[in-house]
């Protein structure tokens, strides 16, 4: 972006909204010059921290002997919980159950107990292994499968949603099925692990460069743990090497420790976790045990559903409450449940505290919904797609009775029918279903399967206060623009989209807008970049800031040229004032001379939304995003190995701000969702040790796991029915559950061994092992 | 012992610069040196175990034949001591000096191949290595070249689009590395003075032997030294276990261990031959080994890891030992000037225990090529298809008598016991029997006598036992009916 000669005759600016501009940092990514936290030039004398992790899953600490740690080469200092100057707590839920460093007891294997600071990172890591800690081991709950959801301790009050009379409707339904499914968790596996670099300032000040999705939250946590006001702490992040929810709350621990050590030693301190430490010591997507009880009729129409979504919270609350809530918000996916009763159980376990992960419980809720569809399809002998279509919410514009969610919000924008219909045709679902049946009839070992699954995803933070955003825009006298907002860049192209919004507002080429690092000193009290909200909220806030400046420029131009305001029109790189045109830069210069303020803070809050958790009622979401995927797989009946032959996706991003960026979100989200439901398996041993703690053992998808044929399209007709930023829709999380199509295609292939007469009840992740075991189970059931 | 001159300097070329180092720790990794000492921050650490590829750099090295090859390797587990006489190329050296992006980089930009960008330098380097060898690669070639690169954002599709398009941005004829290849060969040759490189003192030192005899003598005299070939295993002892590995002997540069020869129906592979180097010969001679090698680690690991190391470290889940045992391979072990040859299957005694004396090393493995009438197959079963460690791996070599009965069958598995191990009871149940489904099913019941596998994070004991049996069925089906596929495959058969 070094072209600074604006075209004053252009018909359109370069890089406005809806333009498919490439990522603003792409040229730096490929050259290796994009700066991540660990790449920042270190201040002279920077020290490095390492963590000492607990070696038992649950125990009281009898004694800690750190003498060997302190004596190790290069060690400068060692911190324990006693050295936390403020409160030893970084709980984001206000439950005061998340110590920075364990005090008196440890609650999971891998919990940080102490922090070593040494001259080099290597020295710190080596020294951390020399501690002698004596534990009195206590019984540990690791897995939730056998825990009683009704009686076991929970980390946060559970949620119940109810509408209608589920119990009696289940009793009176013509058909009824009960079942249970296991759904695994997921490690974020952001390529850049958790890292913070803290630089001490004067008085109580500290600046922390932190790979965080929630700079304001990190700021407050650091201040809290240090016992200083928030104004003493500044958090800055230019970009993250991936986040996916894993840096919403999980960044705070590294930030707090680095900051505390930096102030204590008056030296810059960096804490960067090793990959294994990162995977062991930081939270993941929650795994679930889902109990369902469904009533339906012979047609396959759902009458009533009763669910319990039990989730493995880990040792503390973290975000488990709201994650469980969002699972319930999506337990219907795109389907109308006439009667529903659904509750969460946020089970406390002696494992790492699970946290936000792209979708935030929503995808887990949808897995429950799609299992219900599968059960009904096999029970009625129908194609699962027919059952899906039969149970959709009423389409937008239809004034029917089938449009109320379990949380009593009316679905007014349902476009899933059209998306599914278009995808069904473009993917030739019917033709391929028949071709697959023919193939399977002639193939003994390799069986194919296909599934088309929908997604309806609610957009807004369910924590109402989070639905606000701020931005800061400066126009300099040369007409160049400095843009800052509260959102963070983790690869999703947020900064680019917001810059496009600002460029559009001023009608200047995108390269005139400078993207800058997110910092709590410029925009305060921001929400984490999460819940897919980044562009919706920050785009609006930046637009507000730009409009304030633009309005002042209009006032100035109208006054100085003695024309009505409506005769001041912003054209590409120029402004028409009455009958004359002036370069944007010139107008800005003149406005400055006339002492017009060229800086503004913008603000936005999402309208209409409200949510009463105690009643389970509200307008929780501003709108919904939709999509659908159709996947075909081949499965090896001898080993359970499989290949994804083809996936077709049609996704709704409203009037997309940037289609190529959004397609990237859809492609990447799908693969991440597919990985979660197929090869990504978290495996704890009997002692509560996570044994899949590195890429050697934890298998995210590779290039060779992509569908062999992968067709991804955005709808070209949809737009947000609420006035969102340029009528676009959020696109961060909604594509992830498109990966469900692979799980259900696998299920379809498995079902072929019993002539599609038995529901495979294929649990996730559907590793080759789970697939083969499901095949064996169906074969055994078929034999009787 | 050959009286080698000793040099206490490490010499190599970094990007455009000659580098001479006199103070390098035996366990110093290339990645940390680049980032911490040279402040070259473009190369990233994603996992520090050779599994994610964010740290991929190119290493140019002279082959025994005197040509210069550039290979992508994982800088995170590459020790500095192994770089003597090499050309290290990092992402900072890829764009032109005026900042003009290289075709590989420009294609990645234009096709939206990066999102968060953290993995991107590694992808650029892997694609660069591929493009130098295959400017217009097939999707299979691209996917194979990218097995060692993880991306969590893009879903890979845009990276594939970029990879297909690189050549439309410029030909290899204009590539600086290739254009300067002849000059670089001379530069690297000048670094090769035939000296032993030795740095540090006492136990805290490393040695790059001058030649094979030098190595043999050295190890005989100092049998507790850690021998490092590809460092794809030992690298993790340092980065993950923080073990003390000193003193270290680096043998990857020993030309005499790099021979691969076919003679009298046997392929002899020197212990220093990497998977990449062995691939062409092995897959030509024994076609079933091609797809197996292509699924070991990622390309970066195959460029460093050696078949000799895969055997020497004695892992129960090494991929090549069961295949080579089924092929009746033998091993040359050497201590000082003494050599002995043993059957590979006798080498593995128990978990962590091999038939190798102190000071002795694996010099070569000899693999008989199956006779025309023999059928040989090897099946690797993993959670993820590529770059994954074996849950169960079965290898089968069958010869049928004229009457269709089993004349001989040799079956070996990995992941089923504490060592790579033959399935004698299954073999016994088959030998002399007709090769039909009934016999095979009867033999499948015998697996329980041969193996009592364990449950771990890769698979349960039940799955391993079941799959082990089913792989015999797969082998039977593949040897008897060509019509319907007996396994899923991502790529059409070549």
Automatic annotation (TrEMBL), chain A:
Coiled-coil positions: none
ATP-binding in keyword set: no
InterPro entries (alphabetical): Ald_Oxase/Xan_DH_a/b, Ald_Oxase/Xan_DH_a/b_sf, Ald_Oxase/xanthine_DH-like, AldOxase/xan_DH_MoCoBD1, AldOxase/xan_DH_MoCoBD2, AldOxase/xan_DH_Mopterin-bd_sf, Xanthine_DH_Mopterin-bd_su
GO MF, any single term: xanthine dehydrogenase activity
Transmembrane segments: none
The enzyme's E.C. designation: 1.17.1.4
Enzyme class: oxidoreductase
Keywords, alphabetical: Molybdenum, Oxidoreductase
Highest taxon listed in the record's lineage: Bacteria
Cytoplasm among keywords: no
Domain Aldehyde oxidase/xanthine dehydrogenase a/b hammerhead intervals: 31-139
Descriptive protein name: Xanthine dehydrogenase molybdopterin binding subunit
Taxonomic placement: Bacteria, Pseudomonadati, Pseudomonadota, Alphaproteobacteria, Hyphomicrobiales
Encoding gene (name): xdhB
TrEMBL record, chain B:
Domain of life: Bacteria
Domain (FAD-binding PCMH-type): residue spans on this chain: 199-372
Signal peptide: none
Alphabetized GO MF terms: xanthine dehydrogenase activity
UniProt keyword annotations, A-Z: FAD, Flavoprotein, Iron, Metal-binding, Oxidoreductase
Residues covered by the 2Fe-2S ferredoxin-type domain: 8-94
Gene3D superfamilies: 3.10.20.30, 3.30.465.10, [2Fe-2S]-binding domain, CO dehydrogenase flavoprotein, C-terminal domain, Uridine Diphospho-n-acetylenolpyruvylglucosamine Reductase, domain 2
Catalytic EC class: oxidoreductase
Pfam families for this protein: CO_deh_flav_C, FAD_binding_5, Fer2, Fer2_2
EC number: 1.17.1.4
SMART domains in the record: CO_deh_flav_C (SM01092)
PANTHER family documented for this protein: XANTHINE DEHYDROGENASE
NCBIfam families: xanthine_xdhA
Name of the protein described by the UniProt record: Xanthine dehydrogenase small subunit
